[in-house]
Amino acid sequence: MSGDNLLGLPETLLPEDTAVMEALAERSPATAADLGELVKQFPTSSLLWALLSEELWAVGAVLPSYAYARVGYHRGLDALRKGGWRGQGPVPWSHEPNRGVLLSLYTLRRAAEAFGELDEVKRLGDFLQMSDPRAIDAIEATIRPVTDQPVTEAIIIRGQD
Predict the structure, then answer these.
(1) Which residue positions in the chain have pLDDT lower than 50?
(2) Are the C-beta atoms of residues 35 and 52 closer than 8 Å to each other?
């Protein structure tokens, strides 16, 4: 039992999704369009939904980022339950197949904060902390900063009459 797991609950270690990882490697670096195609092929992958959420967040598209994170969150819960998780216990970031679930929790929490959904921010923060107290720092060390670019740009050229 680790110092972080005071109840002695077993860790949930999700199985590796080789097909998803191979598809991501083939499209590296994956664009939002690539990720959109991949989630159609692998709709149960919380990792793909979280990465798509992250791509849109990085360009300031908060609402779509929230929606994709929400799907990733629910797909992640499905995967955790299938993996034997019963609503509590460690989900370690160090186990790479768990990262999609944890990244979905993080991206959903961040988007909920942008909307001022404070109860959801707290609940998701607690969930992340309970899953792995080191997850938030690990995620924040790997994500891209938000760019100043708008999602769409319009250029207006005005001529003289």
Answers:
(1) 1-3, 149-157, 161
(2) yes
Q: Are 57 and 111 in contact (CB under 8 A)?
A: yes
Rounded Cα distance between 141 and 135, Å, is 10
Q: Which pair of tokens denotes residue 10?
A: 């077993």
List the structure tokens of 61.
């598209």
DSSP label of 158: -
Q: Which distant-in-sequence residues (6+ apart) come within 8 Å of 133 by Cβ?
A: 4
pLDDT of residue 156: 43
SS3 130: helix
Largest CA distance in the chain: 78
Q: What is the pLDDT of residue 2?
A: 43
Which residue in the block uniquely carries the two structure tokens 């005071």? 6
pTM for the model = 0.85
